[in-house]
Amino acid sequence: MIFNYEAECMPQSNIRELQLERLKQTVNRVFNNVPFYKTKFLEKGIEPSQITTLESIKRLPFTVKQDLRDHYPFGLFAVEQKDIIRLHASSGTKGKPTLVGYTKNDLDNWSELMARAFAAAGGEPGMVMHNAVGYGMFTGGLGCHYGSERLGMTTVPISGGNTERQILMIEDLKPTIISGTPSYVLNIAETMEKMGKDPKGTSLKYGLMGAEPWSQELKLEIEKRIGIKAMDLYGLSEVMGPGVSSECLEAQNGLHIAEDHFFVEVIDPTTGENVPDGVEGELVITSLTKEALPIIRYRTGDIATLYREPCSCGRTTTRMSRVKGRIDDMLIIRGVNVFPSEIESTLLQIDELAPHYQLVLTKNGALDQVTLFVEISKERFQRGIDNKNLISKIEKLLKSQCLVNISVRILEPESIPRSEGKAIRVVDKRKEELIPM
Ligand code: DLL
Asked: Which domains, from first to last, does the chain contain?
């Protein structure tokens, strides 16, 4: 179902026209109301009147996460605090959080975009929606909540955690659609199996999942294990929260960007130069309608590609590929760059393994060491383990597919901590312990 046909299926030329008009408004808004932007624009010799085409956005400076931290709490807001009706914070791990705010119109737009995402993922008015995304300062829970209500679904605000209780609610309330992080939805399925229940036997048909990188292989594993169609949902607090882009049920091939609200570019993360469509790089997002916290060319740190070919679902918006990972999470192993999601893709091709792993970084003298800890599947464990052959099989496959030499350690089932939100895939023991927010 298409929630807002006019917005989601408008011809590309009209989208570009609308984007330009809204870009000009946003540039004026930040220039007049946010001293940080005024100073940065003037330093680059730019006045809002010089932004006359979408191309000219490239003249504007980038915004980075540190800018939000430096102006904590309200320094980048473009409206007075009394006009802010909601605050959230990004899931930072140390230091000051990045605080984000919303006016009434911002929340209306956000709900609309999340309603679009649910409709694209198979949601319909009247369906029961099990919202297993964490509530609180994290944008995930409430973002999904308001979108689900906007679409007219019966929304179950269960949040993350207390998994056995979640399962009883799923059995009793018979939801058709679930939202959560992929790792938590997998955790629910695994807990059901442990309780002697078949996750494929529930009423669930669709899942809308995101907030963390997940490989195509993990998506297929979730679909098979629960008997649902799993759609990808992307977003980030600094820009809005979930709903910046999402996958459609029809094609399940890339995430449709809400281009009437965001202008998305891809840059080479080292040079900062724009790269052509289809080339992988860092997503840079400019908000086009936000009032409380408009953001100009925000460097997301997320790696993806853009596609502009039409989609079989009828939506005309540009699509982005699934996010491969955050630049910060990229590992450099003896000169080879690799993302945890690429390692995940390889591991999930090996039947003897369970989809639970962690990459642990340590120091051996001056050298960084990476060890992959991965769980063996229950079936294989029960049949007895021949670790040596299995380890060499994993190492060979990692070498041929990811071009890295990683030492592998096999663990018994249920050794890796399960996630109730964002899974921790990389544990960096080289640095001091991170303090969760
Ligand atoms: O994670 C918003 C969200 C909630 C998205 C629920 C989807 C579902 P933050 O906590 O600010 O916001 O984290 C944003 O999470 O920059 C990406 O690195 C990562 N991320 C979000 N969605 C995806 C996804 C929410 N679908 C950061 N695939 C982003 C891969 C994702 N990474």
From this structure: 1-326 (3.40.50.12780), 330-434 (3.30.300.30)
